[in-house]
Each structure stands twice: as C-alpha cells, then as structure tokens.
Amino acid sequence: MSAVAEFQEFSFRYPEADQDSLHLINLQLGWGLTLVTGPSGSGKSTLLRSLNGLVPHFHGGRASGGAWVLGHDLRRTSTRQLAREVALVFQEPETQFVLATVEREVAFGPENLGLPQAEIRQRVASALGGMGIQELGSRRIANLSGGQRQRVALAAALAMRPRLLVLDEPTSQLDGEGAEALRRQCQELADSGLAVVIAEHRPWRVDAVGSASVQLRRGSVAQDESRLQRPVPKSPRPGPAFGPLRWELSQVSIGHEQPVAVGIDLGCRQGEVLCLTGPNGSGKSTLLRTAAGLLRPLSGSVSRLPGRIAYLPQEPGGVLHQATLLDEVRQTCRWLKLDCSPWPILEDFQLTQLATADPRDLSTGQRQRAALAAVLVGEPELVFLDEPTRGADPASRQQLLQVVGRLARGGSAVLVATSDTEFAGQIGDSVHELAGGSLRRRAEVAA
Question: Residue 292 is inside which H or E element, if any?
Fold first, then answer.
C-alpha cells in the first residue's frame, strides 16, 4: 500500500456517546508531513489515535468501515503491534510518562524494543539534542515546566525512530525555540522519507515546504483545506485609564528551593492586562503562582489588595472534578457564595450545548474552555491564567480575548503567563519577558 494510512467510509463512536466522533471518513495520508486542523471537538485527536490503534482497541466503542495504517488492517492489528512502528504524543503529554527522570523516560521506548545499550544511549542523546534539552537529562520530570515536559515527550517519541510520528497539539506549551526545534526535526524526518502527522491549531509553527493539509469539521473531512493565518497583534490602547495597583512584587526572588529569577519588580493595576512570556522553564508559572499568593517568595515582598482571586493552572483537569460542566460552574458559585447564574459564562465560551457533559469526555480544547468558565464565573477582581490558550482553536482564542477584555473593562487586574506570543500580542496592555533569571518589559511583541 503506497499510502501511510487509508480510511474508507470509516466511522467511530466512543462508548456511551450519542454521535460519531469520526463519521464516514474517506482519506489517504501520504509520506512526508501532513497537518490536521479543525475546531476543538472536530475529531482530530480521535483520527490521530486511530493511527496507532488506541481507536478502537483501547477506547472501545463502535467502529465501522475500513482503515489501514502502514499496510496493517486497523481493525485486526493490536495497538501493541502498531506501537513498534507508530509513535504518538498526546495533547497532554504528562499523562503518558512512565518513569521519573528525563533520560529514563526517553530510553523507555527503545529499551522495550530490545535494542543494545549502546544504541539506546545514542538514541537518547540524539533525541534530547534534537529537542534542545540535553541539560535536562538527569532532571525529574515532576519538577519540569509544562513546556519542558512537552519537549521530553517529543524526545521520547523521536527516540523510537518510528515509521510514522503522530503529534497532537505538540507546540501548545512550547516557546519559540522549542517550536522551531520541533519544526526542524519534523522537516528532517519528512525529507528522509518518514511520515509525520501533526494536529495543530497554529500550523504556521510547524509547517514545512511540500506539506499536505487535512481539515476536519464535526467528525468529517472538510473540503476547505486552507492553512490558518497567524493572528495580527493588536495596536496598543491609547492612554488606558487604569486604576490603582491591585498587587505588586518588590525585589522578589522566586523559586522552590533555589531561585530561578531574582530582583523582580512587577505590579498590575485595576483594569490592566499583563502578559508574561519567556522560554520554557524560565519560571513563568512560578512567578504567576507567587503573584497569586499560592507560593511564597524566596525574598522580597508581595502586596495584594483584598478581592476574589481566579486562578487557572496549566492542566485544566486540576480544577475539573464534578460530574457535569454545569456542576463545575455551579460549584464555584456555591463555594464562593456568588449570586450569579452559571449560564452567561457558559455562553461566553460557547459551552451551553455541553453543559450536561462530563468534563472528562471533552476534548482538550473543550476542557480548557470548561476550566476557564469554572474559574472566571462571577467577575473576579484578580485573575491569574497559566497557559490559557493550551489546546485552543481560533474561535476559542477569540472567546477568551472577549472575556478577558470584558473583565479588564470591569476593573479586574489580569496576569497571563503564556508561551503563545501571538495571544500575548493580542491581549496584553504590556508584555514582560522572563528569561535568564530576570524580568524585562518587551518593547514590542514578536509573534
């Protein structure tokens, strides 16, 4: 079979779902690089999981039609067998880690192939070098930033040297350097004759000459396969009328045991949106958590006016615990004794039709919107968002822009830590970069 993968009238429905996640797909994927785009919930992750057999063998559910991957009949070939030729990195890579340290995790796949130790060491070194994380080899994965963990997962996939590499939203937490390293690796693999399939809401970060494109909508292949365009940074607001400082850091050092940044002076005023960017592992999440009062500074002082704090962690599952999305928002209202309806914030994030869904059954992008709705209900005075565009499609990004803008106009002080410099350029009244242990204000935003 000349195609890497072929689907003929292929449909798949998850257990207890009331509609197909993939519906009558007719598609051929070729060698080289293929970009898969489409809105959150359109079936991208399901399509990618079918390429290594997780759909249908692991998830269960109902499959119909024909599907072949690398010449194997998907319906008759086990995930275990496909895993020897197909490497998949999930949208949430932290869910697939097995071992504690970076080198051990990257070596885990080649070890399971029964390779000689010398080759395993060579593969680990090559994969870590390819993703620019050689210095992380001895580090514990639990102590890494979200972007660093994403690079580790990508290195582990590269170390398998698969015939087909499948990546689900691989740049969602990567800084510019990490995204460029990934793009180069994918280009080299495609040029060498291997197949790379990437689902990505920001395809310009990984696009390559000669790449193919597939667009999904509502579980079906769409006719329009045009690339998404990079968003344009907004023009600064003329003379914004901000209120008093809501919180301020003075000569603060941040870190857990050892400082990652020192001498930080930063404050956020009523009605202001600050964006914090910087390389993976530079301390963005640590600074945000320190400003929010979740971590104590190693030195220096933090002052904060009274007010309700809304905090979104990097992993949306950390704030989603109820049986339905509607229950999640209602629980926030109950805990904080908020006299408000949950429906307006669900409408803001286009989630009303999913109100009775279990958050664990949603796509990553939908769960992100669900977590945002759960923490932002009721007009909080102080807002701290960590990588809020993770897994966000263009429509979701626009919804978040509108909600954050409305909160700022209502007097909220907003701090956003993000590797998404395009989003920072769209929403930030000012953008600050944390790098090399210090903080500086950026004169302009480079997308």
Answer: helix 284-292
Check if the beta carbon of residue 402 is closer than 8 Å to that of residue 344: no
DSSP category for residue 351: -
Residue 311 has pLDDT above 50, yes or no: yes
* Residues paired with 311 in a beta bridge: 384
Q: Model's pTM, two decimal places?
A: 0.81
Closest CA to 182 of 264, 95, 97, 280: 280
CB 308 within 8 A of CB 381: yes
Three-class SS of 123-158 = HHHHHHHHCCCHHHCCCEHHHCCHHHHHHHHHHHHH
| Alpha-carbon Rg for the chain in angstroms | 22
433 bridge partner residues:
277, 440
Q: What is the pLDDT of residues 70-99, one digit of tens each?
A: 999 999 999 989 988 999 999 888 888 999
CATH number of 245-441: 3.40.50.300
Half-sphere exposure of 290 (CA within 13 A, CB side): 29
Contact 87, 79 (CB under 8 A): no
Report d(CA 377, CA 397) in Å as an integer: 18
309 CB-contact burial (10 Å; exposed 0-12 / middle 13-18 / buried 19+): middle
With 0-12 CB in 10 A as exposed, 13-18 as middle and 19+ as buried, what is 135?
A: exposed
4 in helix, strand or coil?
coil
For residue 66, with 0-12 CB atoms within 10 Å meaning exposed, 13-18 middle and 19 or more buried, which class applies? middle
Sign of CA dihedral 124, 126, 127, 129: positive
User: What pLDDT digit, counting tens, does each position of 22-59 carry?
Assistant: 999 999 999 999 999 999 889 999 999 999 999 999 98
| Tokens describing residue 439 | 């903080």
Q: How far is it, in rounded angstroms, from Cα 27 to Cα 4?
A: 11
Segment 227-264, tens digit of pLDDT: 666 666 554 454 457 999 999 999 999 998 889 999 99
Mean pLDDT of 107-131: 94
Number of alpha helices (DSSP H) and beta strands (DSSP E) in the chain: 12, 19
Query: Where along the chain do the CATH 3.40.50.300 domains lie?
Result: 5-221, 245-441
Query: What is the spatial distance between Cα 127 and Cα 79, in angstroms, rounded to a whole number?
Result: 23
Q: With contact defined as beta carbons under 8 Å apart, do 172 and 390 qualify?
A: yes
Q: Which helix (H) or strand (E) holds 286?
A: helix 284-292
- The CATH code of the domain at 5-221 is 3.40.50.300
